[in-house]
Amino acid sequence: MATKPAALHGGDGYVDFGTAGGSSSFSRTAMTAAGTVTVGDRTLTVDGTAWFDHQWGDFIAVGAGGWDWFAINLDDGTDITLSLVRAADGSYPLVYGTSVDPTGATRRLGAADFSVSITARWTSPATGVTYPAAWSVTIPGERLAISLVPTVPQQELDTRATTGVIYWEGSQQVTATRDGVPLGGRAYVELTGYAGGR
């Protein structure tokens, strides 16, 4: 069950990619989740929080170089989505995000509103692909500084047998400050395009 309204990316749920088309997109950044997990002959009851995204359109054309996508839940109730879409030459023709405050109110983030810096890299021993592996995120307008480090480096997915691509996505350790006051949180990052033609 959602505990906040849907966050419409791009301000109204549509992100304009210019000549490459566009994408309709929204997120449910705060949902309750409950279920069971069976391990061997034991069934465990679990509960927690979940994040749901839905995106559709002709947006793949602009991301010929792949994309870096960040979903961050901070312990003060702020939820942040950041998208950095790369062209084939490695430039970033599209950079955008959405910040959701504890009440569910959203704020559109443009490229000038935040910065993402890579602070470490990791090379997969299985495929030889090198990925960014830690980030520093700043959102000056919200007085936020966020550090993301993968919970484990090996979160690569080799799906060449089914979808034809290799990519990386997984959970992150989060340390953050707002106005210098420490914050914790949870995050998830998706990285595509780093494997090239593999």
Give the topology, please.
Layout: E1 7-8, E2 14-16, E3 22-39, E4 42-57, E5 66-74, E6 79-86, E7 94-100, E8 106-109, E9 115-123, E10 130-139, E11 144-150, E12 156-158, E13 166-178, E14 181-183, E15 185-191
Antiparallel strand pairs: 1-3, 2-3, 3-4, 5-6, 5-15, 6-7, 7-8, 9-10, 10-11, 11-13, 12-13, 13-14, 13-15
List the main descriptive attributes of the protein structure presented here.
mainly beta; about 60% strand; single chain; 15 strands; AttH-like fold; about 200 residues; eleven-stranded antiparallel beta sheet; globular; four-stranded antiparallel beta sheet; about 0% helix
Strand content: over 45%
Could you name the ranges where pLDDT drops below 50 across 5 or more consecutive residues?
Answer: none
| Topology as a string of helices (H) and strands (E) | EEEEEEEEEEEEEEE
Largest sheet: 11 strands, antiparallel
Under CATH, the topology of the domain at 60-191 can be stated as AttH-like fold
Instruction: Give the class-level CATH name of the domain at 60-191.
Output: Mainly Beta
Quick one: overall form?
globular
Question: What features would you describe in this structure?
Answer:
- There is one protein chain.
- The chain has 198 residues and is mainly beta.
- The chain has a domain of 132 residues: AttH-like domain (AttH-like fold, Beta Barrel).
- It is built from no helices and 15 strands.
- Strands 5, 6, 7, 8, 9, 10, 11, 12, 13, 14 and 15 form an 11-stranded antiparallel β-sheet that branches. Strands 1, 2, 3 and 4 form a 4-stranded antiparallel β-sheet that branches.
- Strand 3 and strand 4 form a beta hairpin.
- 28% of the residues are buried.
- The mean pLDDT is 93.
